[in-house]
Write a structure and sequence with these properties.
By secondary structure, the protein is α+β, with helices and mostly antiparallel strands. The chain is built from eight helices and 20 strands. Helices cover 24% and strands 23% of the residues. The strands form six sheets. It has a six-stranded mixed β-sheet with strand order 11-20-19-18-14-17. A four-stranded antiparallel β-sheet has the order 1-8-6-3, with no helix packed on it. The longest helix has 17 residues. The chain starts with a strand and ends in a 7-residue tail after the last helix.
Length: 440
């Protein structure tokens, strides 16, 4: 009996993924450990290795398919001695699922003859026929046309197909969308929500409603990473009691030490590398700040694993410098360069961005003076680092100019009390302002 290859859970936060690329084609021999596909998770594109042996009998989910739920079948593997006849009775390749609109009850729009827009359920089965939401007969449509219709919120029952035997194809969806845009542009106002809707003029997408009086816009579909970031940050701000403390660090001596080290080192050391090292050493001095909340106890980490925010085109990821308190500046700099390059290429391994104990987010390179970062649960703290800039300071009763960097600690007040946060910032400031102590 064929073996189902299912969408794997490649990270703790992964509930769905995108099938970026198949590395095997139907009919290819597959051995245990072979890389058969590349899966795009919420954080990176990762290789998927086969656990069984056989021959790839059917690819259920095509390349480029998005929103595939974890544990959904993506392919069928024929065991030794089986041929294509063994695939009879198994599902054919489904159309890639597309998230439905979250707004099911919109007000009606004016305009006769426009395609009806609804919230159809996800359509399964490439090449299959479906039933219209109002039950009026069967609909023949290509898989691409079905995906486009679901994404645009169009009712296929209201569209006349131009393909063979009335099959709805991509050109028909394009024409329907063009008709919607033309009639929206001509509509002077929206009908009140209580008015009777014209027979074919019901819309379910607030973005479409906005067209009547809003500037032009384009839609950028949510990536898996953006969905996870949105969910986790919302949960963090809603469930974690953030409190904030800031400290100004004079970094003139640090910049001098950095220049001296870079003149003698093949690895270029950045200010951020000093920050990572100082944060790790400060956690060793104030271990109560290196903690996380759980329902049963406060977890006190025994190692300073520093997660460092790296900006990507569609979000961010936090590769980890593990045991940063035990590493020198040159080693931290080399690791961060490698981690950042592979993060932007989507090539990080799971263990390289999951499991840090403390986070650092540095926006100083963008000229940001100070900001407050959102905690990344289950961690208890994140340090937001601003730009080093020349500011007036008072030293010995005299006005002077110094290069000052503002750092703000966001702490989970369930874990890190105000006094502990203050102790950590005091230790961090002392290390940054006397950088030679970081070299001991």
């Amino acid at each position: 009996m064929p073996i189902e290859i299912r969408m794997p859970a490649l990270s703790p936060t992964m509930t769905e993924g995108n099938l970026a690329r198949w590395l095997k084609k139907e009919g290819d021999e597959v051995h245990s450990g072979d890389v058969i596909a590349e899966i795009e998770t919420d954080k990176a594109t990762m290789e998927y290795e086969a656990a069984d042996e056989g021959r790839l009998g059917r690819i259920i989910v095509p390349e480029g398919a998005q929103g595939i739920k974890v544990n959904e079948p993506i392919a069928l593997l024929l065991e030794e001695g089986e041929d294509a006849s063994a695939l009879a009775g198994f599902a054919a390749a489904p159309a890639a699922p597309v998230p439905a609109s979250p707004h099911p009850n919109p007000p009606p729009l004016a305009g006769e003859g426009m395609p009806r827009v609804v919230n159809p359920p996800p359509l399964a089965g490439e090449g299959r026929v479906g039933v219209s939401p109002n039950g009026q007969g069967r609909i023949f449509a290509s898989p691409l046309a079905r995906r486009m219709a679901v994404h645009a919120g169009l009712d296929l029952a209201a569209i006349r197909g131009s393909g063979p035997q009335g099959r709805i194809v991509k050109a028909d969806i394009d024409a329907a969308l063009a008709a919607v845009g033309t009639q929206l542009a001509a509509a002077p106002t929206l009908r009140p929500a209580t008015a009777a809707a014209p027979p074919a003029a019901v819309f379910a997408r607030p973005q479409v409603l906005a067209l009547a009086g809003s500037p032009p816009f384009t839609e950028k579909p949510h990536s898996a990473m953006r969905r996870v970031i949105a969910r986790r940050l919302t949960e963090s701000k809603q469930t974690v009691p953030h409190h904030y403390m800031s400290v100004d660090c004079a970094i003139d001596d640090l910049l001098k030490v950095r220049a001296t080290l870079n003149a003698k080192s093949e690895t270029r050391i950045s200010v951020n590398d000093f920050v990572i090292r100082a944060a790790a050493l400060a956690l060793r001095q104030v271990p109560a700040a290196n903690a996380a909340w759980s329902d049963d106890a406060i977890l006190l980490w025994e190692r300073a694993d520093i997660s460092v925010a790296v900006a990507l085109d569609d979000g961010l990821i936090t590769p980890i410098v593990r045991g940063a308190d035990q590493k020198g500046l040159a080693q931290i700099a080399a690791e961060m360069k490698d981690l950042a390059e592979r993060a932007r290429a989507g090539k990080l391994k799971l263990e390289e961005f999951q499991g840090g104990t403390f986070s650092v987010s540095n926006l100083g390179m963008y000229g940001i003076r100070d900001f407050a970062a959102v905690i990344n649960p289950p961690q208890g703290c994140i340090l937001a680092v601003g730009a080093g800039e020349q500011r007036p300071v008072v030293r010995g009763g005299q006005l002077a100019v110094a290069t000052v960097m503002t750092c703000t600690l966001s702490s989970d007040h369930r874990v890190v009390d105000g006094a502990v946060a203050a102790q950590f910032l005091a230790a961090f400031k002392k290390l940054v302002e006397d950088p030679l102590t970081m070299l001991l």
